[in-house]
């Protein structure tokens, strides 16, 4: 996967594999991403440090560019603020636009999305980058909402 194409983009990162037999360096990287469980996702801007962390934990993650429309759907269906659904408090479209304008997602809602396992399953958990074609993760996220 070409990591240099992701720099400066808004990306979604999904944890694909569990905690069994994980190296401490990878475990620490996943904790920094706040991905404590399988099928949890975060949305971040891809910077050099973020890309370096992705390289370390790439075998446990699926990641790629996310479109504003899919981000809006994720916020509407799975976004939370504390124990309440985000759609009841804020407008998902405005949050998605703000994120693509340079704001952090964590300023508006909880930064971690708890997604369902994908419909029809993963192609390969041992090589999750096969799932993401052309660095676009939208089809995978739609199957997980």
Concise summary:
This protein is α+β, with helices and mostly antiparallel strands and 145 residues long.
Assign the CATH architecture. Answer: 2-Layer Sandwich
Shape: globular
Q: Report, as a whole number of angstroms, the end-to-end distance.
A: 25 Å
H and E order: EHEHEHEEHEH
Assess the beta-strand content as a share of residues.
Answer: 15-25%
The stretches of 5 or more residues where confidence is low (pLDDT under 50) are none
Largest sheet geometry: 4 strands, antiparallel
**Which CATH class?**
Alpha Beta
What does this structure look like?
With 145 residues, this protein is α+β, with helices and mostly antiparallel strands. The protein has a single domain (3-144), classed as Ribosomal Protein L30, Chain: A. Helices cover 31% and strands 17% of the residues. The protein is built from five helices and six strands, in the order βαβαβαββαβα.
Give the tags.
145 residues, alpha+beta, Ribosomal Protein L30, Chain: A, 4-stranded antiparallel beta sheet, two-stranded antiparallel sheet, 5 helices, 17% strand
List the topology elements.
Elements: E1 10-15, H1 24-32, E2 40-45, H2 48-56, E3 61-65, H3 68-78, E4 80-81, E5 84-85, H4 92-100, E6 112-114, H5 138-144
Antiparallel strand pairs: 1-2, 1-3, 2-6, 4-5
